[in-house]
Structure formats: structure tokens, C-alpha cells
Amino acid sequence: MSWNLRYSIRNFALAYAAWWLVWLLIHAFILHRMGLSWKLSFGDAAISSFLLALVCLSAVILYRFYQPGLGQRLFRLVFAVSITALFCTGIKWILLYFFPGDVSYTEFVTNSIPIRFGFSFLMLSFVSVLNWLWNVIEDQQKESQRKNQTEQLAREAELAKLRQQLQPHFLFNSLNSISALAGSKPDLARKMIQQLSDFLRGTLRKDENQIISLKEDMEHLELYLDIEKVRFGHRMNVTLELDEKAMDAKIPPLLLQPVVENAIKFGVYGTVDEVTIMISSMLSNNYLVLEVRNPFDEKTLGASRGTGFGLSSIQRRLFLLYSRNDLLSTEKTENTFVTRLKIPQTS
After folding, report:
1. Which stretch of DSSP H or E encloses residue 338?
2. Pair 133, 68: CB distance under 8 Å
3. Is the C-alpha dihedral spanning 219, 220, 225, 231 positive or negative?
4. What are the residues whose beta carbons fall under 8 Å from the beta carbon of 181, sequence distance 6 or more?
5. In whole angstroms, what is the distance from residue 193 CA to residue 184 CA?
6. Ramachandran assignment for 305, one of left (phi > 0), alpha (psi -120 to 50 degrees), beta (any other)
7. Which residues have a Cβ under 8 Å from the Cβ of 132 and sit 6 or more positions away?
8. Taking the mean position of all CA atoms in its chain, how far away is CA 68?
9. Residue 227 and residue 196 in contact, taking contact as beta carbons nearer than 8 Å
10. What pLDDT, in 10s, does the model give residues 108-139?
11. CB 220 within 8 A of CB 257
């Protein structure tokens, strides 16, 4: 038996005993006001309250292990009436057994049976209904917990799927670049293979974490950028404008890499000119704000237009983590495309 269960049972027992002790005192006071001596009043109240407490406890235990359906209301009524009738029959016999010889008390007990029946029926019904409501609430809590756990598992599975779907495109491009370099520049090909190995190893480690620091994500992003610089050479420059105060801010792992990959795709593909990708970060009003800027040309955009999976998957991932759809936004100026991420920071 777990400690929490023992603690709950102990609290229930103390509360239950206190409830019936209070009723015993009230019962004895009422009987005394009706003309019985204090001895008879406390004796009657103690025996009646103890036996009724046992009957109600039996009902609690019964309904704990067996809950009639909503359509079996007649069963509940018959059960309450039957148990109350047995209780009243038994209490009359027991009271007259413990307090014999007093004709006035015998007459009092006989005349009070209808009142005892009514009160016992109401008390038993109240305890039964209270116990039923408790079980209903407990079942609803368990169902809600199961639902939350199922939704959490579904979110985690979708997040894992999204992270896995972001890698193949970059991996295929890198392998193609390695293949192209293998013949003409084997040293660069070997270097790129080593960088790709380090990048993929880091990806596997970070998939195990849900939140990391911006500093960690930037270290991983630099591995990715080193690979891309081998592919594009002098054509691609990366400028970092990172606020030192923001480096300890928390973000989902591997969040920046697909954003930067998207910027490279639309900024570097389709042009032979030198291109600069700008990455910036800052803290603002309990948000980590990340911006990735890349040049783009509307005339060559059609040749490199993709499915839009990259940014849409990031937005979906942010929604699954933070339940918000406004954490990713894009903006176009004359020849610049800006992707902006806002990551909430817990204080």
C-alpha cells in the first residue's frame, strides 16, 4: 500500500469518526430535551450512531467496488430502503436488550422507529450519493489524465516526426556535394564528411532534449554552416549579431537550422553573386527574438520555390510546444526576406 493511499485512508477515517462523534453529541442532546435521562440519552445515541456509522461505511465500501449504472436507480432505492429497514429492526432489539425494564423508554423506542427510519434513510442516501459523486469525479479525473497523457504522447510523436522530416533534404544535398567534391577536391570532401558526421551526431543527442540554450543551438548551427560554406565557398557569408544576454535563453533544439537552411535555399540558390545571411538575437519582454535575413530575387524565386514544408513545420512545432500560432512571422522588403521567431521565456 502506497504512502499516499495510507494517508488518504487515515484522513478519511479521522473525518468520518469526527462526523459521527458530532452527531452522537447532537443526538444525545435531542433525546435529553425529549425527556430521557442523560444516561439513556448518551447510551441510545452512542449505540444508534455507532451502528448507523457501520451501515453507512458498508454502503461506502460497496459503492467503492460496485457502481450501479445510471439506469439502475431502482437498485439504489431498494438497497437504501432494505438496509434502513434492517437497521431499524436491529436497533430496536439492541436498545431494548441493553436498556430493559423501563416501560416508558420501551414505549419511546417503539414510537420513535418511524423517525429513526426516516433519518437513517436520509443519512444512508446522503452518504451513498456523496460516495457516488466522489467516484464519478475520480473517474473523470482519471479519464482526463489518460486523455492528457494520450495527447502528450501524440504531440511528442508529431514533434519527433517533424524533426526527422527536416533532416533528409539537407542530408541529400550534403551527400551530393561530397560526391561532387570527391573527384576534384578530395581533401574538402573528407572535411565535409567529418563535419557532416559531427553535425548528425549532435542532432541525435539534441533530439533527446525538449529545451536547450541558444548557445548550444548556435554551436550546433555553426557545424551546419561550416558544411554549407564548403558547398558554396566564397558565395556565402554569414553575419551574426547575437546579444550576449540572450545566449542563455531557452529554445527548442534544432530550431534555427531549418530556418537558416530556408534562407540559404532562397538566398544562395539561383545566383552566382556573393550572398550574406544575417542571424540576430535579442531579449525583449520575456521573449527571445531571433531573426534570419536573406536576400532574394523575385525573378529567380520561382526556380527554387519549394513546398513550404520548412517554415510550416517550424510553426507547427512551436504550436505543439507553446500552443500559439503567432511565434513565427515572415516579412518581405525590396530584396530582403526576414524570418522572425519569438520564443517565450519563463521567468
Report:
1. strand 336-344
2. no
3. positive
4. 188, 189, 192, 230
5. 15
6. beta
7. 63, 67
8. 31
9. yes
10. 889 989 998 998 888 888 877 777 777 778 77
11. yes
